[in-house]
Write a structure and sequence with these properties.
With 391 residues, this protein is mainly α. It has two domains: 292 residues, Orthogonal Bundle (Fic-like fold); 69 residues, Orthogonal Bundle (Arc Repressor Mutant, subunit A). The chain contains 16 helices and five strands. The longest helix has 37 residues. The chain starts with 11 loop residues before the first strand and ends in an 11-residue tail after the last helix.
């Protein structure tokens, strides 16, 4: 770590650890934020977009089914930031028991599954009245790391050894960034938790941006810090009542801007550049919230169109919502979902084909797989914003 890069004492201090390693210890929260005209405008736009998205979430006719695509998409994109290559189609097919093993990249798919399960667990805990805390963060991290890279790196436990951030060939001395040493870890984490539970002193979105940067600066786990930090964004906004459903996938904004994302986080530590980081964060919230609103309205319109087309076929009508959770379906899945006989399930699928809602994905006479292409098209159309530099 190049000590001369860390020029702003207000953002933190270089600390020589017990092990003799130069580390960076971030300053206690909260930092002084300058609410200039650019920041105020960015905050206003992000607040407006997020409020609209939350309102749309309250109108979902079947939230249990319709939020599944958003959880899956955020999990895919957040994991992709860390180097996985799982695609939406692969994850949708992965959920089809009959087709397990037909896609590639089992390790990547497991990381995405874990992210979804961790998010679902966090949402459940929040809805049962449990606040976000360090204990909950550890529980979610344990879920995040099941059977994936880092599974042997103390899942669910804050680190007791030094870690660092840098190129794969770097060590603790040549790394770009070395987080706080183990002996000071609980001090900075306790301050992070204290700030997390402070409300009313600054706008929620500003506080969320600060919490995310500080979590990444602390880097409390040996692995999985990035995914854990991004997962906490959604949970924080839901806890504060800013999101009615987990419909925001901020990773769709971050993923194509990974270089900017990491550099802006680092510039907070080296130069105290909170303003540029927070504007980047707010711009991401605005863009992804508007994108989610558009996608949600498209899905709701498509659902209504399907229901109008198939209204005279009760069993086929009952399958419509299933297709918005996963547009792929088999006769076996239809039979299980409807709790009917195999011939009845096949008749329901046949009706969906006749009305143009399903087409066959496979070209074989056995274990046929069907897809609702219109739903898949909307779910796949997560337009990446322009990747011009924010720096």
């Amino acid at each position: 770590m190049k000590i001369s890069d860390f020029r702003c004492s207000a953002s933190g201090q270089i600390h020589r650890s017990i092990a003799g390693i130069d580390t960076f210890v971030p300053a206690l929260l909260a930092p002084a934020i300058s609410y200039d005209s650019q920041l105020v405008l960015a905050l206003s736009k992000a607040d407006t977009a997020l409020s609209e998205l939350s309102g749309v979430g309250r109108q979902l006719p079947n939230p249990h089914v319709l939020i599944a695509p958003y959880l899956r998409q955020e999990a895919i994109l957040s994991s992709r930031i860390e180097g996985t290559r799982a695609s939406l189609s692969e994850m949708l097919l992965d959920e089809m028991d009959e087709f397990v093993g037909e896609a590639t990249g089992e390790a990547d798919r497991q990381e995405v599954r874990n992210y979804i399960h961790a998010m679902e667990l966090g949402i459940l805990e929040l809805r049962q009245g449990r606040p976000i805390s360090l204990n909950l963060v550890q529980e979610l991290h344990a879920q995040l790391m099941i059977d994936v890279r880092g599974k042997l790196s103390s899942p669910g436990r804050f680190r007791t050894i030094q870690n660092w951030i840098g190129a794969s060939s770097s060590d603790v001395h040549s790394a770009e960034y070395v987080p706080p040493p183990p002996e000071l870890l609980m001090d900075v984490l306790s301050d992070w938790e204290r700030f997390l539970n402070t409300s009313g002193e600054m706008p929620d979105l500003i506080q969320c941006a600060i919490l995310h940067e500080q979590f990444e600066a602390i880097h409390p786990f040996l692995d999985g810090n990035g995914r854990m930090g991004r997962l906490l964004i959604t949970l924080f906004l839901m806890e504060r009542g800013r999101l009615s459903q987990p419909l925001l996938y901020l990773s769709s904004y971050i993923e194509p801007r990974r270089r900017d994302y990491y550099e802006l986080l680092q510039r907070v530590r080296t130069d105290g550049a909170w303003d540029t980081w927070i504007r980047f964060f707010l711009d991401g919230v605005e863009q992804t919230a508007r994108q989610s609103v558009q996608q949600t309205k498209q899905l709701m319109d498509l659902r209504e169109d399907f229901r109008n087309r198939i209204r005279s076929k009760p069993k086929a009508l009952a399958l419509v919502d299933y297709l918005f959770g996963n547009p792929f379906i088999t006769a076996k899945r239809a039979q299980q979902f409807l709790n009917v006989s195999d011939p009845t399930a096949r008749a329901a699928i046949g009706a969906l084909i006749d009305f143009g809602i399903l087409t066959e994905w496979t070209e074989r006479s056995w274990r046929r797989l069907y897809v609702s292409s219109p739903v898949l098209e909307v779910l796949s159309a997560v337009d990446q914003p322009e990747t011009s530099s924010s720096l």
